[in-house]
Amino acid sequence: MDEELFYGTLDFIVPGKTDSYRHRGNHWLIKGHQPALMASRVIPNSWANEVGERCVPDNIAAAEHIQWIMVRYPLKISSPEIWKKRVEVISEINKKRHNLRTLTENVTVDARFKGTLLAFQKKGLDFLLKTNGCALIADEMGLGKTVEALAYLVTIPDGFPCLIIAPLVTLVNWQREIERFISMAQGKPFSVEKIRTGKKKDLIMTGQTTFDGSDGKPMIYLINYDLVSKRRDDLAKIPFRTIIADECQHLRNPTSMKTKSARELVDLQTVRHRIGLSGTPCYNHGIEIWSICDFISPGMLGTLPEFRSEFIWGWDPKGSIIHSKRGALYEMLTESVMIRRRKLDVLKDLPDKTRYRQEIQIDQEYYKNEMRNNIKTLHEKLAAANARTDFKAIAETSAYQEFKGHERMSAGMAKVPYVVEFVKEMMENEEPLVIFCHHLSVHETLQQKLSEFKPVKIIGGQTELDRQFSIDSFQEGKTKLLIAGLRAGNVGISLTKANYVVFAELDWSPAIHRQAEDRLHRIGQKNAVFAYYLEGKGTLDEKIVGVLTDKTLELNEILGDANRDDEPSGDISLTEKNREFVKIMEKRFLKIPGQS
Question: Quick one: which of 276, 283, 279 has its CA closest to 319?
């Protein structure tokens, strides 16, 4: 190009130790009145040295701006090799952007994945593949983020060993999802190590390991956020290839110990894939997205001061994103690391109702103590039944039924701490939610433990006026949480404001659950309904869910709709099969340490 066609020069500057602007680091210097003026208008964090000059930070975002300016105002480049490298990076980024805009359903899922992906979930897998597993899956709750991550894990050739960091309440469910949806090549289950304690201890057994599962050693490690900082050194000894952060909004504070520890782990040389899963990555304010992205793609949004300088009003303590720059930030995220689908976006692919079976922990000590008393009462009633000369069978049946009823209440109360934790996680989505429970003690405790959300209630014994006040308050959006009795709130009311429902306690009859679901899934409901059935680990819930389940696979393992003829309801006579089951339960509980 002839000299007279240039509007100025572009120089690469490496500040010397005595330069007053050395703290700004390497940068580009634009000389020329018109291109410098344009740079001052469009490039954030640029600064002036002399009249007709503009200094620009040396980063890819700024290089893209310079490239755009040079289309209108060509510049003579004094460091062509350095500039060429920046242009090559920009070219690769543009290719990636194009690929991420054209996601396909025609993606090959590895045979080790045992589930079935819906169309939009296949696109989610394609997104993960095209970002090489450095991605934020920010789909709304209930759309199958877990399933997409597991499908990716077995589809790539170098996914293991894998570390999954998740809230404590979801670890059991992760273990179940792993068992249900993925397996090794020969159909054998993956070896999973759930880290339960903060006590330091080597996580790798001595001796060589191949990390392909052939030696039986763990390929997947599960840990909750609160233990990450305590076990960081132990975890750092494992050559993880993939780290998944479920509900990654827990990493929103860059100064917290768990965030710092997780950030150090993704910096391990062996880590190739960093996946964040969250329907609410920005929990309070937009600045929180920086910490999430710095975990997934370190440096993508620059340093925190750089991000603040470009996207935050001054030093706003809340960290709210400047309104005029929110769209630009969204484009930056979706063109590099983030995919987000709302239920409305994929409604045509979703079933009307999706049911999730979610196993949760229980308060073991409370449950054991209660069951000791329940078994003692059962023995007393069985002894009294055997002493009878008439109606002996009826008395025995009544004793077993009463035992099951007491177990239901004990299990319900033992589940409460973990139900509360599960619900609080869901409430972070700021979506209206309905909880169904059965026992009054469970209802009252949930009402107390979740008081911060100002829940309204539907419960037996309410006046019609109080009941209607609760319904209206919920439907009009005055509160986002309603707690209802399974039988008091399962007929005659409309709760279409919500499309999420949690069953904190389970009933033997599928019809009871279906009627409760239909308080949400009825005329006026514009969204798919997501029902979560919380199963207490080691309780009679396991038997109940077995009765209710029709083993159909949708987004996850789901509960069946059909009220089959062979399913018992709460008021039928105890069958031989169920009597035998209760006897098995009795024997199991008699083995509880300390049982007399």
Answer: 283
